[in-house]
Sequence to fold (486 residues):
Amino acid sequence: MAVAKLNEYAQKARLDLRYEDVGCDGLDHIRTFTVRAVLDGKTYDGVGKNKKEAKLKAAENAFSVLSEGTIDPTEKTTEASAAPTDQTSIPQAKYTCWLNEYGQQKRSDIRAVESTRLGPTGATQCCRFVVGDKEYPAATGRTKKDAKEEAAKLVYHEICGGNTTEDAVKEQNMGKSQNEPSIPSRFTSDFDSMEYLGSGAFGHVYKARHTLLERYYAVKVVCREEKSLREVGTLSELLHCNIVRYYTFWMEDSGYQGNSELTECSAVFSSSQTSNNSSAKYLYIQMELCDTKTLKEWIEEKNTQSLQDSKRREEGLSIAQQIVSGVEYIHSKKHIHRDLKPENILFGLNGEVKIGDFGLVTRDDDDDDALMERTGQRGTTTYMAPEQREKNYDRKVDIFPLGLIYFELLWKLSTVHERGAVWDDARSQKLPEEFSLTFPQENQIIESMLHEKPEDRPEASKLKAEMEMCAQTLNKQNTHQEDETV
Ligand SMILES: Nc1ncnc2c1ncn2[C@@H]1O[C@H](COP(=O)(O)OP(=O)(O)OP(=O)(O)O)[C@@H](O)[C@H]1O
Fold:
């Protein structure tokens, strides 16, 4: 039956099919025969008590491989080219690589038992795998490598043959489709204890432990494209205590599916960017692990608390000082961040401020006073400097959102309505009267940052100095108040 079906399959798919006698083994009464089916240059061996049975086994073996154990082989004949194309596209030793990775994940010993059989048509190599305590069936091949790969394939089919067992789920966690092993993933080989942290428009971020270093990192997995490569390029040039530290990056063929979210590029990209992405690679960016709470959550949390208090004032200033310090450094390296907003400001594990998300960063290579021709509107409109909507702007586009952030750090904006009205006024340099009375010094600094004309806004270095003076004044006031209470 399987022989007839394989013939039909080969005819429909227009593939060359032939059978070869490989030889026989053993004494007369326990003699076994090996027949090899050669389909489109690929070999499938069968062993039986006679040649007929061996041929049948070879055909069955070919079918089970072609159908990957999940699809009725007869259905395959209607989609003639699908399976062989898949097969021929599998790189050499793919199943062996998969098995090695499987062993690492399961912490099981993998042992290959190899031997050579001599028959009338020459030597045949045999191999079977022992995974942990379990022995898997033997396979044969023309070379040791072929035999090993065929034997690994048998292990693969037995473990992941179209089921939804724990192993198959583990397989998914290893970032592969259930029925097709892929090249071992550096992410799953070098890291463990993956935990999903969050997603942006371009990918997902995971907490992961580097197994050799025994340290945790944040690994961002994004579809490769201009934005991500720009982010990596910039981050690798920046080393500052208020900027998320970048360590390294690498490319992989597939995304990570740890939390069973789709990591096809189409799921990661917005619809305007989905074209021609089926063969897109994935970029893995290894970064310093930060707290999952961003500055956005910090502000939201403060806004749920009763009144503006002196603690918020001090903490707000300290956060603003750290952001300005990071921005001063970014500008000194001739970069513009272009997307400063509370969601992109993280906290290090020791509480220090860390500027992240350099996806919109650009070079600021011109003379100090010159404006640059940029690539149109980028960034988040709520915080965006007015001139960023145009094509010409310079690093001062980073100062405007900083002004809004500093205002938000200090001032409680509870309702959506309040936020809308006050926000629009703030963008036009009009801060609430009560704010200017409560925070006169800060009011002055923030107003200077919100000038409509970029050239009127201070440089980050000047702001840093002004904020330092503000901190000293606050310190003096606090000491004075403490003295009075004593
Ligand atoms: N280094 C990190 N450490 C800890 N968590 C991080 C780190 N980087 C990012 N995250 C988390 O992952 C989420 C997604 O980050 P990502 O940079 O991909 O997108 P985003 O900045 O939120 O959005 P977008 O890229 O669309 O502007 C963040 O909101 C944050 O919660």
